[in-house]
Amino acid sequence: MSDTRSTDVHSEEAPEILAQGSEADLGEAGSQLSTAPVETAVPGSFGGSRAPGAKGWITWTAREIIGWTRWFWRQLTSMRVALILLFLLSLAAVPGSLIPQTGQNALKVQDFKDSHKTLGEIYDKLGLFHVYSSVWFSAIYILLFISLIGCIVPRTLQFTGQLRGRPPAAPKRLTRLPAYATWRTDADPEQVREAALAVLGRRRFRAHVAGDAVAAEKGYLREAGNLVFHIALVVMLVAFAWGQLYKTEGNKLIVEGDGFSNTLTQYDDFKSGNLFSDDNLVPFSFTLDKFTGTYERNGPNKGTPRTYQANITYSVGAYGKDKKTTIKVNEPLVIGDAKVYLVSHGYAPVVTVRDGKGNVVFHDAVPLLPIDSNVTSQGAIKVLDGYKNAEGQSEQLGFPAFFVPTFAGAGQGTMFSQFPALDYPVLAVSAYHGDLGVNAGIPQNVYQLDTKARGLKPFKDAKGDIVKARLLPGETMKLPGGNGSITFDKEIKSWAGFQVVQQPGTGWALGGAIAAIFGLAASLFIQRRRVWVRATTGADGVTVVEMAGLGRSESAKVPEELGDLAALVHEQAPTKTDENDETAESDESADDTTPDADPEQEPDAATPVPAAEGAQKK
C-alpha cells in the first residue's frame, strides 16, 4: 500500500540560504522574482585610474560624469526616494490648507498681510500664499513624476520579458530551497512529469518541462499590481495637474425668471487655472424657472430644509434644444466637464420706485443676501437713472433694505426672522438721495450702500430723523417733500445661487485612485513563487521524485502550498511499496534485504521511520 506520509516537506530560512551561498547554486532559478531595481551604495569613484596628460584627464572626467549621472538617476528612480518625495509632497501641501491662498480668497490674503506685517512678507517671499504654484512645490511634484516614470518604464519592460519567457529550469540541488519534498515511486519519470504538469496546470501555474524537471511559476499579478499602482499614481498626478491648470470655478446668483449663459462676463465672481482661456468654457445656458424650498415646522430640527431644489430649463451649445431638469443639493447638472451646483438660496422682494410726478423709475426684484439660517436678509435698492427730485434735478436714490420672511411682530423687540419660509414677510427700508458714486470708476458691491459717501444725503422727516419704515407686501413709504415713493409689491421672488465648476481630469483621477487601490492590494496579498518537480531514475532503478518551492520572500504559505501540491502529485505517483512485506509470512527463506533498502544504510541499522507530512524547520 502507498503511504503519503513518506513525502517529507522541509522549510528553511531564506536568509540562511543566501548566507550559505545558495545564490550561486540557484542561478537563474532564484533570479527575477521581482523587477525592483537594485539599490546601490555611494561609489568612491567611477573614473578609476587617471592616465597622464590632457587626454587622460578628459577620459577620466567623462567617466566620472557619466558614472555619477547614472548613480543619481538610479537613486532618483529608487523606491526609497519615491517614498521620500511622496512624503515631502504631502508635507508641502499642509501650508496650502492652513494659510490663505491668493487663488481662493485674495481678500483674506490681504487681511493676513495687514495683520502680520513681518510674517506676511516672509510668507510672500516663500510663496506660501500660492503654495500649489510655487517653485519649490512644483519641483517636488516634477521630481516625483520623473521618479515614478523612471521606475515604471524599465520594470515594465523587464516584466514584459518575464511574461514572454518561461519559468527558469530547476537548480542542481533542490535541497537548498526553502521548501522541499521527496519520495520514491514505481512510476516512470515521464509519468511523474506529466502528472506534475497536470496538477500545476489545475492550480493555475505556468509550467513546462525543462530537462528532467517541471518548472512552474505563479503570482505574476503581484508584480503586475505593483506596476499598476505606480502607473495609477502617475495618472493621478497628471490628472490633478491638468485639473489645476485648466480648472474654472464661478458663482452666479439668479432670480426666478432670469437666465445665465456660460460666458466670463456673466459670473458674479470667477477663478481659473493658469492655462485657462475663454475657449475652454463649456457652451451652455439655463433659466431658473422656480426655486422650491420647504422646511421642518416642528421639533429639534425646526427650520431644516426638507425640499431644496431648483427647476431649470437649459440648452447646450448655441442652437441646442431646451431641456428641463431639477438641480438639488449634491445632485448637480453635468454638461461635459462642467458641473452646476445649487449652493444657496434667498429672497428677492419686488419693489417699485416712483418720482414726485408718479412716474415709475424702478420696478424689479431685488435680491437680498441672507445673514442667518432663517434667511434674515439685507441688501440695497439702487436707482441709478431716470429719477428727478421735486425741483426737477436728476439724482440717484439708495435704499438700505432689511428683509425678514417671518416677522416676530411689532413690540417683540427683534427684527430677525423666526422661520425661513414666507409666513409673515416684512421689508424695512430707509432712504438716501444724491450721488451713489457709481460713475467714479471705483468698483462697488451691489448688495451694499455706502451711506457715508460724500455725495449722498438721507431723506429726513419733520423731526429731523432719517425716513424709514417697515413695509408689508402692498404698502408704500412716501418720501418727504414730494420726492416720490417706494412700494413693497405683493410679489416676492426667490433666488438661487449656483456654482459652476469645470475641472477636467476628475474622471482620470478617480480611475487612477481605484486602480491604485486594486494594484496595491495585489502587490501586498499575492506572492510570487516558483515550484520545481524533478523525476529521475535512481541507482537501483527506482524513480526518485523531488519537489521544491521558492518564494520572493519568506512565507509559511510556500511550504504549505508545496505540501498540497506534493500530495496531489503523490496520488498519481504513489510511494513505492515493499514487495517482500506481502510474502514475508509464507516464504521464510526470503532474503533479509528488501528492494527498497537504502544502498548507503549499514546492515544492522534500523529502518528509517517515514517523516510526517508538513513543513519542518531544519
TrEMBL record:
Transmembrane helix listed as a keyword: yes
Segments forming domain ResB-like: 79-562
Chain segments carrying region Disordered: 565-618
UniProt biased composition (Acidic residues): 579-603
Alphabetized UniProt keyword annotations: Cytochrome c-type biogenesis, Membrane, Transmembrane, Transmembrane helix
Spans traversing the lipid bilayer: 81-99, 135-157, 227-246, 508-526
Membrane-protein topology: Multi-pass membrane protein
Name by which UniProt lists this protein: Cytochrome c biogenesis protein ResB
